[in-house]
């Protein structure tokens, strides 16, 4: 379990920088294009390791396996992360980060129904305290964020929670490297097809007043230059490649609910990074919210440690 918490901390630190990097190039690069590039880089980085794991485990990937990867890739790359990056266009990056970090609220009940993971009183208390922290950070009575951005962020959080639980179903069979790599690449393949379809004249004819401009004529490489290449590489290599790897390593060593602690720690770290990098000073309600989020994470950690002690005692 100690290794799981190390992976949780590493993933939390990396994920806490995602909005900052994404916001710096959001105006220059289409959100779907950005997702395509970052997950292509992330998948390519994990491919050599994935091939080694497949050979070592002597895995024979069937049509069913590839359909499964198409499902997880669609949920993560095409739906959740595209909604996430689109949300940043319509509201503050910090607001999107905090709402997205509430995805464990959806992970826990989904894991209960799909994986039969038990929900005890401490887990429920952890979720309640963490949600209260989210409310403090968002400060709904003082924030006037765009409703479209908030809605997109909520939908992104729900679909990412579903992706996390569905990935947990077979992560033991493939391993986290293989699961991440082929989910990224198959999701990217679906996204590439949709990007190519966006250039059809039929879509352009319906663009005026019917569909957003960002889903018409989506570029693949256009717009990439010396000013944004570093941020793109960081999002692809560090955030997508390493961040997701550590997240699923944590899930392998624990459970879907425990690994979701990453998104309780993230709202505490993200404002700190914003202060250090962007010089944004946190308000008092943000500080209170951070404290509550950390308290929620501590409650869930202590709950899991207690369960581990009970299991160890039962077999000693």
**Helical percentage:** over 70%
Order of helices and strands: HHHHHHHHHHHHHHH
Q: Alpha-carbon distance between the termini?
A: 17 Å
Shape: globular
How many strands appear in the DSSP assignment?
0
Total individual domains:
1
Beta-strand residue percentage: under 5%
Biggest β-sheet description: none
Mean pLDDT, nearest integer?
82
State the oligomer.
single chain
Helices and strands: which structural class?
Answer: mainly alpha
Topology summary:
Layout lengths: L1 H14 L2 H7 L6 H27 L5 H28 L2 H8 L3 H12 L5 H18 L8 H22 L2 H4 L1 H22 L3 H6 L22 H25 L2 H4 L2 H17 L5 H32 L1
Identify the notable features of this structure and list them briefly.
mainly alpha; 316 residues; Diverse_Substrate_Transporter; single chain; EamA_dom
Describe the structure.
The chain is an all-alpha fold and 316 residues long. The protein has helices at residues 2-15, 18-24, 31-57, 63-90, 93-100, 104-115, 121-138, 147-168, 171-174, 176-197, 201-206, 229-253, 256-259, 262-278, 284-315. It has one domain (2-119, 147-254). The chain is globular, with a radius of gyration of 20 Å. 49% of the residues are buried. Residues 311-316 have low confidence and may be disordered.
């Amino acid at each position: 379990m100690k290794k799981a918490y190390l992976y949780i901390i590493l993933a939390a630190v990396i994920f806490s920088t995602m909005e900052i990097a994404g916001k710096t190039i959001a105006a220059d690069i289409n959100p779907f294009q950005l997702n395509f590039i970052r997950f292509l880089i992330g998948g390519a980085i994990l491919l050599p390791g994935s091939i080694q794991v497949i050979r070592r485990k002597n895995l024979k990937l069937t049509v069913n396996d590839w359909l499964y990867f198409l499902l997880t890739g669609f949920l993560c790359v095409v739906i959740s992360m595209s909604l996430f990056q689109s949300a940043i266009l319509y509201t503050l990056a910090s607001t999107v980060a905090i709402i997205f970090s509430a995805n464990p609220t959806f992970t826990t009940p989904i894991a209960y129904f799909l994986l039969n993971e038990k929900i005890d009183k401490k887990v429920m208390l952890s979720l309640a305290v963490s949600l209260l922290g989210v409310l403090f950070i968002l400060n709904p009575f003082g924030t006037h964020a765009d409703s479209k951005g908030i809605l997109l962020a909520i939908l992104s959080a729900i679909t990412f929670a579903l992706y996390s639980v569905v990935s947990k179903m077979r992560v033991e069979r493939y391993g986290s490297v293989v699961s991440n790599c082929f989910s990224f690449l198959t999701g990217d393949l679906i996204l590439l097809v949709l990007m190519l379809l966006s250039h059809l004249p039929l879509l352009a004819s319906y663009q005026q007043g019917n569909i957003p401009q960002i889903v018409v004529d989506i570029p693949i490489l256009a717009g990439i230059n010396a000013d944004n290449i570093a941020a793109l590489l960081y999002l692809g290599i560090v955030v997508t490649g390493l961040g997701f790897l550590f997240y699923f390593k944590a899930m392998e060593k624990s459970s879907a609910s425990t690994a979701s602690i990453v998104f309780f720690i993230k709202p505490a770290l993200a404002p700190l990074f914003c202060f250090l990098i962007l010089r944004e000073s946190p308000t008092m309600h943000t500080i209170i919210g951070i404290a509550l989020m950390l308290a929620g994470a501590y409650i869930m950690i202590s709950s899991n440690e207690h369960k581990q002690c009970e299991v160890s005692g039962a077999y000693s």
